[in-house]
Structure formats: C-alpha cells, structure tokens
C-alpha cells in the first residue's frame, strides 16, 4: 500500500539555489553528520529526523558548487564532484523502512542523505536490465513536472517509449484503449506520484524500475535507484547518468565524452508561479 507523505514543509526552511519543485529538494548539504541515536522508526516503518540532533564536523564538505565541465567527464573525481553538486543524494526529512539501506546519515537540516555509491551501482544494474529487452518496449513516465524533460531526453537518445501528461488508467491493463501498451519494462520517476503506472505494471507482471527518495514506499518496485527525485537538477542528472549507461550497453557510445547531450540539456525549465 502506497502512502502519501505530507508536503507541509516550508520552502523557506531550506537553502535552494535552483528553486525546485518541492520544499526539501536540492537543499544545500553541510558537511556534518547527525547522531544516529536521534533517528527512531515508528510503527509504520517511517522515520522522521529529530530536531535536536548532535552533529560532528566532517573533514570534507558535501556541498560543492560549480558548473558542469563536459571536458572533464573522463575524470571520475571531477564527474563525482559534478554529480554531487546537483543535490542528487539529498533526501527528505522522512525515511521509510524500504529506503533505510540506501541512507548513510542525516544532515543538520534534518534531511536524510542517500548513498551515492549505491545510486551509481543501481543505475548500472538498471542499464544492464534494460539492455536485455528491445528498448522500444521500455516505457518511461513522470507525473512530476521537473521529470518530464529528462524523460523526453532519455527517450530521444535511447529509443524508449515516453508517456507524457496524465497517465490514463488502463494503459497497461485495458487492450480496448487506443493508447494501450504492453511494455516489457516500466521506468517511473516517483513510485508515489506515478502510483497508477506502478500498480498496473504489477498487475500485468511487468518489472518496474523506480527513482526513489528517502520517503518512498517501494514494495512494488523491482529495481530501486535511490536518488533525489524531486529536484530539477537532480532529476536531470540521474536521467543523464542512466541514459549514458544505457547508450554504452547499446554500443552507441564508448565513453562519457561521447554523450551527445549534457546534464543541462536534460534539465527542465523553472516553473514560475503565476500570482
């Protein structure tokens, strides 16, 4: 059973240079660790970060600023710095039991931090899994506004099938619908926001790959890619990384420098609030 987490966090509570969609997305991370004793799960397997945590200074800062340098993509250290600067591992103030193994700690702002090494490892696993089927039979969807452009770019470069706009109930289960699909793999940007796609994939026996944040419930997901799935730049980054690995598995590129598009190309435009 999927549960919706409250979105009552104030946008002003966290620093956010990208003005991203959710209040706790892409928040700047300070190089400190919180005391693990302050984190305690409740009966539903969901943990929230206590406000009065004890912190210790880390030797290396976690928040790295700077623009993407496409000439340095072959250097693993530079690539890692570039990835970390996008907030890809910054989670939410809530942790579910499904995502606990992907979390390293919580920062002083009360946000859980995802393990970037596991994120990169799961992207590789997902790319290998996708490579086992015809890419035209891979369906990708995003109900999140900032996930639509990354999905479009992923589909444009790999040949996957994108589902844009509202996900029509019955798309994977009702053959009488004009847009009925029989995918072999379904990729969702958020198992909570894309719940209908996940449920129908499960009913149809189709494996699901999901980008999942610290507060997601992933009981119906086959391959979890732990990542910030709310941030504009974070979503661009994770889809760029997944696209890169899929293209390598397809034999279309051999190195990072051969990627035809940059992370910036995957990034959605800011959605301005109309007053």
Task: Quickly list its features.
26% helix, five-stranded parallel sheet, alpha/beta, disordered N terminus, globular, 275 residues, three-stranded antiparallel sheet, Rossmann fold
What is the secondary structure topology, with strand pairs?
Blueprint: E1 32-34, E2 39-41, E3 46-49, E4 55-57, H1 76-84, E5 94-96, E6 103-106, E7 112-114, H2 116-130, E8 138-141, H3 145-158, E9 161-163, E10 185-188, H4 195-204, E11 208-212, E12 223-226, H5 232-250, H6 263-266
Parallel strand pairs: 8-9, 8-10, 10-11, 11-12
Antiparallel strand pairs: 1-4, 2-3, 3-5, 6-7
Would you report the number of β strands? 12
Stretches where pLDDT falls below 50 for ≥5 residues?
1-44, 50-73
Sheet with most strands: strand arrangement: 9-8-10-11-12
CATH homologous superfamily designation: Glucose-6-phosphate isomerase like protein, domain 1
The CATH architecture classification is: 3-Layer(aba) Sandwich
Q: In sequence order, what are the helices and strands, one letter per element?
A: EEEEHEEEHEHEEHEEHH
- Main β-sheet: number of strands, strand sense, barrel status? 5 strands, parallel
Helix content: 25-40%
Gyration radius, in Å:
18 Å
The level-1 CATH class: Alpha Beta
- Content of β-strand: 15-25%
